Amino acid sequence: EVQLVESGGGLVQPGGSLRLSCAASGFTFRTNVMSWVRQAPGKGPEWVSTIYSGGSIATYADSVKGRFTISRDNAKNTLYLQMNSLKPEDTAVYYCAKGGASVVAQRDYWGQGTQVTVSS
After folding, report:
1. Which pLDDT score, from 0 to 100, does residue 110 have?
2. Residue 99 class from Cβ within 10 Å (0-12 exposed, 13-18 middle, 19+ buried)?
3. 48: which residues sit within 8 A by CB, 6+ positions away?
4. Rounded distance between C-alpha atoms, residue 42 and residue 66, angstroms
5. Cβ neighbours of residue 83 under 8 Å, at least 6 residues apart?
6. N or C: which end of the chain has fewer CB within 10 A?
7. How many CA atoms lie less than 13 Å away from 104 in the CB half-sphere?
8. Sign of torsion over alpha carbons 73, 103, 96, 67
9. Which residues pair with 45 in a beta bridge?
């Protein structure tokens, strides 16, 4: 059974930083493309970033490019999202997802999510 467990969310002031983690189990993590997806209150899901299996290739939504960094530790079956220069519009539930960008439309492949709130 695929399990994705996110952690690291919280309340942060604008301009602050957070690091999200996602512990994966139930599948061969090191061979799978992984992504982060977010959903803000009252809005549809938004793809944030994708990282390929080896960890050297990553893509980002324009809204987070230059501020967020996705990474992975295949030895620990863990996915990360370093978020810097956070803005109020980054407030959302962040989900770890098994798959590429198209996983934004496949909720069955997401974890349970972690809340990120950016507010002063």
Report:
1. 96
2. middle
3. 35, 36, 37, 38, 60, 61, 64, 68, 81, 94
4. 26
5. 17, 18, 19, 20, 64, 67, 68, 90, 116
6. N
7. 15
8. positive
9. 39
Cβ proximity of 18 and 86 under 8 Å: yes
CA distance 5 to 24: 7
Compute the distance between CA of residue 47 and CA of residue 19 in angstroms, rounded to an integer: 17
pLDDT of residue 105: 86
**Rounded (to 5) percent helix, strand, coil in the chain:** 10, 50, 40
pLDDT in tens, 28-58: 999 999 999 999 999 999 999 999 999 999 9
Does 75 score more than 90 pLDDT?
yes
Q: How many CB atoms lie within 10 A of CB 51?
A: 24
> Mind listing the pLDDT tens digit for each residue in 80-112?
999 999 999 999 999 999 999 999 889 999 999
